UniProtKB/TrEMBL annotation:
EC number: 2.7.3.9
Keywords: Cytoplasm, Kinase, Magnesium, Metal-binding, Phosphotransferase system, Sugar transport, Transferase, Transport
Domain of life: Bacteria
Gene Ontology CC entries for this record: cytoplasm
Main location: cytoplasm
Role noted for this protein: General (non sugar-specific) component of the phosphoenolpyruvate-dependent sugar phosphotransferase system (sugar PTS). This major carbohydrate active-transport system catalyzes the phosphorylation of incoming sugar substrates concomitantly with their translocation across the cell membrane. Enzyme I transfers the phosphoryl group from phosphoenolpyruvate (PEP) to the phosphoryl carrier protein (HPr).
Database matches in Pfam families: PEP-utilisers_N (PF05524), PEP-utilizers (PF00391), PEP-utilizers_C (PF02896)
UniProt lineage: Bacteria, Bacillati, Actinomycetota, Actinomycetes, Pseudonocardiales
Protein localization: Cytoplasm
Residues engaged in binding Mg(2+): E407, D431
Matches recorded under SUPFAM superfamilies: Enzyme I of the PEP:sugar phosphotransferase system HPr-binding (sub)domain, Phosphoenolpyruvate/pyruvate domain, Phosphohistidine domain
Name of the molecule in the record: Phosphoenolpyruvate-protein phosphotransferase
Keyword Metal-binding included in the entry's annotation: yes
Residue ranges of every copy of the PEP-utilising enzyme C-terminal domain listed in the record: 248-513
Length: 542
């Protein structure tokens, strides 16, 4: 008897049902033969093809907003990368292989390097494959793979979805997303939440599931066969419009509802969504395309543009989160056998304190320019000594409030001592889960371990919450876990004092908190902590 239900990791809440449309995976691998008669004329096909792909992606980015716009802009820059084009052209002329094959091999080298780097850089491998397929399709004159044109509202089922595919989805036609790969922090997860449709990732067997129609439950992470003649059911985001804009429970316990931002467009979207401030301002956008370290004045202007929409409101700026797994040319990182466990985040600053000091100077200047209430925090802090070192430098730069991110289990275990050294902490659930379970957060095969509902992860967060209560200092959550309204209530019950998320989730989380008392949040937290697994934790708190 065929299986009637599949399970995965629910990454965007809601329930929907309807007919299944399966998405083409990738283009067929191009052949190495026959070789071109004129290699130079053949190589000349690559540059214009890449330019056309980049231009299309840039057009899509201009029409998008928020997370979708940022992801498409990054993908367009990847398509226009001169090093990718140059390497492919050289393969054609040196090895006399067709242009399509050369693009395939050149992109493969880039993808392998990113995969070897791990962490954030490994998350970009799917983007490289998408760009590769689009350029090859342009070179040979075929339609690129991806989401087909939908004639009726449907549930999309795919091995994985490229950024351009997810960013261009029409929520009026897409009922839900189901993928075999991906994890809680994948583009599929982020963008599904942005457009408000249910999504489940890491669903093994999704593409071969024998069902013409399915019911998708993004809260429980289940996919069930449905009657193909039954009416389509569209998920709705209930209650989000009823939020009054103040982050608190029904009985008045404050839990700030903040936003994660990484560019001026993100900040404007967050302000428009009603976020009470910013819990995570990622500053890497200033550095990613720089061959040399950006100057203090240039950083100051860039930061002020992000801070400006939050004049008079709290903003937590994370200092540069770079290193071996997010290599920057001017840092000259050394090769490491395991970059995810290497010199990254605040560890870079131990060897290059001047980079941190100049960034802190720029942040202090941008604070004065924008009028925002700015605090700073360091990533990848493991010990109280590291926390104290960072806080001292931040205060010396004229920044009144300094904190750190809790992404390393050691920092959670010693949260009391860490909080004694700083003014606040913020839990990065994405990395904390990855390091707690020794599971790459972008690997679909271990995605269930990175589910933020895992009781072991919640117990670590509970230790941080207890330390915050004992010291009387704030403890936030700024990982993707904060965007789940159900989990937000559990986090509040664990002692978390603020939640920071993508702009699209702000109102739903705020409304969810407003509908329960602190006692109900604490009861839900205890139920989740007592559960044997993530699925049971979700069910116990429904």
């Amino acid at each position: 008897m065929a299986e009637a239900k599949l399970s995965g990791v629910g990454v965007s809440p809601g329930r929907a049902s309807g007919p299944v449309v399966r998405v083409t995976d990738t283009i067929e691998e191009p052949a190495s033969t026959p070789g071109p008669d004129d290699p130079y004329a053949e190589s000349a096909l690559i540059g214009p093809a890449a330019e056309k792909v980049a231009a299309r992606l840039e057009t899509m980015a201009a029409a998008a907003t928020g997370d979708a716009a940022a992801i498409l802009t990054t993908t367009a820059a990847m398509a226009a990368d001169p090093s990718l084009v140059s390497q492919a052209e050289q393969l054609v002329t040196a090895q006399r292989i067709p242009a399509a094959r050369a693009v395939y091999e050149a992109a493969g080298h880039f993808a392998q390097a990113l995969s070897n780097a791990g962490g954030y850089m490994a998350e970009r491998v799917r983007d490289v494959h998408d760009v590769r397929d689009r350029i090859i399709a342009e070179v040979v004159g075929i339609a690129p793979p991806g989401v087909p044109e939908l004639t009726t509202p449907s549930v999309l089922v795919a091995r994985d979805l490229a950024p351009a595919d997810t960013a261009g989805l029409d929520p009026a036609k897409v009922l839900a997303l189901v993928t075999e790969e991906g994890g809680p922090t994948s583009h599929t997860a982020i963008l599904a939440r942005s457009i408000g449709i249910p999504a489940i990732v890491a669903v093994r067997g999704a593409l071969t599931f024998d069902a013409e129609a399915v019911v998708v439950d993004g809260d429980l992470g289940t996919v069930e066969a449905a009657d193909p003649t039954a009416p389509v059911v569209t998920a709705t985001a209930g209650g989000a419009a009823d939020w009054n804009g103040t982050g608190e429970t029904a009985d008045g316990h404050p839990v700030k509802v903040l936003a994660n931002v990484g560019a001026p467009t993100d900040a404007r979207a967050a302000a428009d969504a009603g976020a009470e401030g910013v819990g995570l301002f990622r500053t890497e956008f200033c550095y990613l395309d720089a061959d040399d370290e950006p100057g203090v004045d240039g950083q100051r202007l860039a930061y002020a543009a992000v801070l400006e929409p939050f004049r008079g409101k709290p903003v937590i700026v994370r200092t540069l989160d770079a290193g071996a797994d997010k290599p920057l040319a001017f840092l000259s990182p050394e090769a490491e056998p395991n970059p995810a466990l290497g010199v990254r985040g605040v560890r870079v600053a131990f060897d290059r304190p001047g980079v941190l000091d100049r960034q802190l100077e720029a942040i202090a200047g941008a604070t004065a320019d924008s009028g925002a209430d700015v605090a700073v925090m360091a990533p990848m802090v493991a010990t109280a000594e590291e926390a104290a070192w960072f806080a001292e430098r931040a205060r010396a730069a004229g920044i009144a409030r300094a904190g750190v991110m809790i992404e390393v289990p050691a920092a959670a275990l010693n949260a009391r001592e860490v909080l004694d050294a700083v003014d606040f902490v913020s839990v990065g659930t994405n990395d904390l889960a990855q390091y707690t379970f020794a599971a790459d957060r972008q690997l679909g095969a271990v995605a269930t371990l990175n589910d933020p509902w895992q009781p072991a992860l919640l117990r670590l967060i509970g230790m941080v919450g207890d330390a915050a209560k004992a010291t009387g200092k704030p403890a936030g959550v700024c990982g993707e876990a904060a965007a789940d309204p159900g989990l937000a209530r559990v986090l509040a019950g664990l002692g978390v004092t603020s939640l920071s998320m993508n702009a699209a989730s702000v109102r739903a989380v705020g409304a969810g908190l407003a509908g329960v008392t602190l006692a109900e949040c604490e009861r839900a937290a205890q139920q989740a902590l007592a559960a044997p697994n993530a699925q049971a934790a979700r069910t116990a708190t429904k």
